[in-house]
Specification:
five-stranded mixed β-sheet, 3 helices, six-stranded mixed β-sheet, alpha+beta, 349 residues
C-alpha cells in the first residue's frame, strides 16, 4: 500500500480532509527536459512534501524554506499574489524519475498523486543513402530507428509531400529497455526526388528525420524488339540468298549441259567438216584425177563417181600425175616397158 493511499485512509477515518489539488495528474516529458507539477491548497497549511517513485525528495515550508535531497528537485511559490500555489520541478528528467509523483500537505489535507512519463528519442537513418537508378526501376529504402522509448511513429515524405502508408511497412523490436524499428519504403523511380524518413514522439516539437536523394537517369533504349526484327529480316534475306544461289547454280549447270538436238547438230557439223562438207571457204583435200584402179586403162567422165574416183580408164590413156598438187620426183614414174605403176595422191591442205 503506497503512502497516498495510507494518508487517504487516515483522513477518511478521521472524517477531516482539507481542500487541495495537484496538476497535471499525468505528465509526459522528453528525456533531459523539466517536469513541472503544481499543488494548490485552500486554507492554512505549513508543510508540504513531495515524493518521487516512493522516495521523499523535497520538503517545502509555507515560509518559503526548501529542503531538497538533490539539486535536480526544486519548489517555489507560484506567484507573490497567490501563496496557496506551490510549483514542484524535476530538472533534467530521465526514465529513473518516471512513475508516481505524490504531494502531501501536513494537517487534514492528505495527499494527491500524479504520474510522470519520460520519453527518449534515439537515432534515425536511411541505410541506403543517396541512390542513382534507371527510370521506372523499383527502389527500396530502409529507415532504421534505434534506442527510442516508446516506439516512435515513423512516416515518409517524397519531395516534401506525405507518402501513402500503403507504400511502406514498419517493424518494431524491443532492445533492452528501449525499442528499435525498421520501416521499408518501395516505389517506382520516375524522376529525381528527395526522400525523407521521419520519426516522431509525443514530446518532440518536431520529428527527427533522415534525408537522402534519389537520382533518376533515363532508361536505356530497349533493343530487344529491334534485334528481333533485324534477326528476322536477316534470316529471311539469308534464306532468299540461299535459294537464289541454289537456283542460279542449277540454271548454270543446265545451260552447260547440251540437249539432244544440239549434240546431234554438233556431231553432224563435226562429221561434215571431217568429210569435206564443211562450210564454204574452208580448205579441204583435193582428189587426184589421174588415179585409176588396177586393170582399168580408160576413164570417161561418166565413170567418175561423186567421190572423184575413176573406175574405167581407156587402155591408151596414160595416167599423169597431178601437176598442181604432186610433190614427187621423176623416179616415181617408170617407162612403159617396165610396167605402169599407178599412184593415187590426195593432198590435203
Amino acid at each position: 500500500m503506497d503512502l497516498d493511499t495510507c494518508v487517504w485512509l487516515i483522513v477518511c477515518a478521521t472524517g477531516v480532509m482539507g481542500q487541495f489539488q495537484v496538476e497535471p495528474l499525468d505528465s509526459t516529458v522528453l528525456k533531459g527536459s523539466d517536469a513541472r507539477f503544481t499543488a494548490t491548497v485552500q486554507g492554512k497549511w505549513e508543510v508540504m512534501t513531495w515524493n518521487v517513485r516512493g522516495f521523499l525528495v523535497l520538503t517545502f515550508l509555507r515560509s518559503g524554506n526548501v529542503s531538497s535531497a538533490s539539486e535536480q528537485y526544486s519548489a517555489s511559490i507560484c506567484s507573490a499574489e497567490d501563496t496557496s500555489c506551490v510549483a514542484f520541478t524535476i530538472h533534467n528528467a530521465s526514465r529513473r524519475e518516471a512513475g508516481p509523483v505524490i504531494c502531501t500537505v501536513q494537517g487534514d489535507y492528505g495527499s494527491k498523486s500524479a504520474t510522470l512519463h519520460v520519453q527518449e528519442s534515439g537515432a534515425v537513418q536511411i541505410q541506403e543513402g543517396d541512390l542513382k537508378v534507371a527510370e521506372d526501376e523499383e527502389v527500396e529504402f530502409n529507415c532504421v530507428t534505434s534506442a527510442w522509448f516508446p516506439n516512435p511513429v515513423v512516416s515518409w515524405k517524397l519531395n516534401g509531400g506525405p507518402v501513402d502508408g500503403n507504400l511502406y511497412n514498419d517493424t518494431h523490436v524491443p532492445h533492452g529497455d528501449s525499442f528499435n524499428s525498421s520501416s521499408v519504403l518501395k516505389f517506382k523511380a520516375v524522376k529525381n526526388s528527395t526522400v525523407e524518413c521521419l520519426a516522431m514522439l509525443q514530446t518532440l516539437t518536431k520529428p527527427l528525420s533522415s534525408t537522402v536523394f534519389l537520382v533518376v537517369v533515363p532508361k536505356p533504349p530497349d533493343w530487344t524488339v529491334l534485334i528481333a526484327l533485324v534477326c528476322s529480316f536477316g534470316g529471311v534475306a539469308l534464306l532468299f540468298l540461299l535459294i537464289y544461289g541454289i537456283f542460279f547454280c542449277y540454271k548454270r549447270k543446265k545451260e552447260k549441259e547440251p540437249n539432244y538436238q544440239e549434240e546431234m547438230s554438233r556431231r553432224v557439223r563435226t562429221q561434215s567438216q571431217l568429210s569435206g562438207l564443211g562450210p564454204p571457204g574452208q580448205k579441204q583435200g583435193r582428189v587426184n584425177a589421174g588415179y585409176v584402179t588396177d586393170g582399168q586403162t580408160n576413164v570417161t567422165s561418166s565413170d567418175l563417181t561423186e567421190s572423184g574416183y575413176s573406175h574405167t580408164i581407156p587402155s591408151n590413156f596414160f595416167e599423169m600425175p597431178d601437176a598442181v598438187y604432186n610433190n614427187h620426183t621423176e623416179d616415181d614414174y617408170n617407162n612403159v616397158g617396165e610396167g605402169f605403176r599407178k599412184h593415187r595422191h590426195a593432198t590435203t591442205v
